[in-house]
Amino acid sequence: MSKRGKLYKDNKSTIEEKSYLVSEAYEKIKGFKSPKFTESVDISVRLNVDPKYPDQMVRGTIVLPHGTGKTKSVLVIASGEKLKEAEEAGADFCGGEEMAEKIQKENWSEFDVLVATPDMMKEIGKLGKVLGPKGLMPSPKAGTVTSNVKEAVAAIKKGRIEYKVDKAGVINTSLGRMSFDPSQLSENTTALMTAIMKSRPASLKGKFVESIFVSSTMSPSVKLDIHQFENN
CATH number of the domain that 129 lies in? Predict the structure, then answer.
């Protein structure tokens, strides 16, 4: 295990042994001594689910109120008028079967999100081995396989994120940047947690959320009080 630096230890020494309200947590994190670059702010939500069972897979998408502070590059694979819609919505790359061929032959992946229309999935399906390991395979549940290309691209550009529980039952995602105000980070967090709470599997018994921690890229994590989100 790597040793923690002095900056990390100094910041950790200021964290009390308690669960913080979301506004308090970000005031705490914003008060940490920070490195000389703009860090991202991340959240880790541990759920009482077993993702190996399909009915306990928790995932969804949400447009954060204040975005993530990062503009994602979007590739759209479609045809006809849908390509025009994609360009008008601000897609960075657009094309048809030739784009799928470029990905397959050149292992090209200079984009953050791939949006495809349903009619193109026959071609996209061949790219699973290339796109799957990189987390770039589009899917209907993520809103990236859709006929409404314009709306999908616009939402991604505004800061739509996908949340998905991993094999360990944890959702990890970014909520913004340290340059955001505490109130903006709080609103993004509340919006995400509200969406996650609504994603509770109907078959689940007992507690749903086991723990919530927020942190910046280089900071120690701060534990959030779960109860503040249970009635949202």
Answer: 3.40.50.790
Segment 118-157, tens digit of pLDDT = 999 999 999 999 999 998 999 998 899 999 999 999 999 9
What is residue 1's predicted lDDT score, i.e. its pLDDT?
A: 44
pLDDT bucket at 179, cuts 50 / 70 / 90: very high
Q: Is 42 in contact with 172 (CB distance < 8 Å)?
A: yes
**Are 147 and 184 part of one and the same domain?**
no
Residue 62 neighbours by CB distance under 10 Å? 19
Cβ neighbors of 180 (< 8 A, separation 6 or more) are 41, 66, 69, 188
Whether residue 180 is predicted with pLDDT greater than 50 in this model: the reply is yes
The range of the structural domain enclosing residue 224 comes to 11-67+160-229
Helix (H) or strand (E) holding 215: strand 209-216
One-letter amino acid for residue 106 of the chain: E
Are 86 and 115 in contact by the 8 Å Cβ rule? The answer is yes
The answer to whether 23 and 231 have CB atoms below 8 angstroms apart is: no
CB atoms within 10 A of CB 87: 16
DSSP-assigned states of every residue in 14-68? T--SSPBPHHHHHHHHHTS---SS--EEEEEEEES--TTSGGG--EEEEE-TT--
Q: pLDDT digits over 186-223, tens only? A: 999 999 999 999 999 998 989 999 999 999 999 999 99
CB contact set of 150 (below 8 Å; sequence gap of 6+):
85, 86, 88, 89
Other residues' Cβ atoms within 10 Å of the Cβ of residue 128 = 10
Question: What's the one-letter identity of residue 185?
Answer: L
Total domain count, the chain:
2
